[in-house]
């Protein structure tokens, strides 16, 4: 198959990125994700105890800067990876886009594949603000952070098919999500439908992710559709759990709460 991705424009820093060194690093260090997850869990436990009898910290300006940096990063990543996937689907069709594994080494996308995987570690910092500002920390939040970190680092070293779809979708959703967080952290009131739209995007991401995994399962025995049953199984469990948790969150946040508020007003 002709390497369509070579015809896509790549910036100099993208072409120069050493994806082989990145692969070697993750092959040797992907297990560190378990250590990071452990430290993260301990921080949550001890941090909440430490803050229990203390005044919550404001941290508005640092939070705006933090969210803005992640928003810009996500927008750039979404632009580059989505353009790659769009051209892949347009040029070679859905099957090739799902089975593609050149995403990890293509000039225009290899840096963003690595950056995406690595970024799951600093994104744990979202929880630092929640703990120090004494906000409500739900199960979905920390469960999502830990499982994405573990799966992303585990998967990058194997460079299995489907990664382009998963990363492009996540970058895109995060571009909207962190932009929303930036505006909210600045003190600007955001209309309720915007928050609903972002949660719906997250639910849609899980549905598409499960569909891609279904196709990978069907095509897994093809020579150029590189994946493993272990990876497909882990990803399926992860995406299905996200779908259920985000759906529950959507119902409780936008329907159950509205119903409760209406009952209170009537009473």
Can you summarize the main beta sheet? none
Number of strands: 0
| Strand percent estimate | under 5%
Mean pLDDT: 93
Helicity, in percent? Answer: over 70%
Task: Explain what this protein looks like in three dimensions.
It is an enzyme of class 2 (transferase). The chain crosses the membrane at residues 30-51, 63-86, 162-183, 195-219, 231-255. It comes from Onychostoma macrolepis. It is a multi-pass membrane protein. One of its GO terms (molecular function) is fatty acid elongase activity. This protein has 267 residues and is an all-alpha fold. It has one domain (30-266). It is 75% helix and 0% strand. The protein has ten helices and no strands. Helix 3 packs parallel to helix 6, helix 4 (60-99) packs antiparallel against helix 8 and helix 7 packs antiparallel against helix 10.
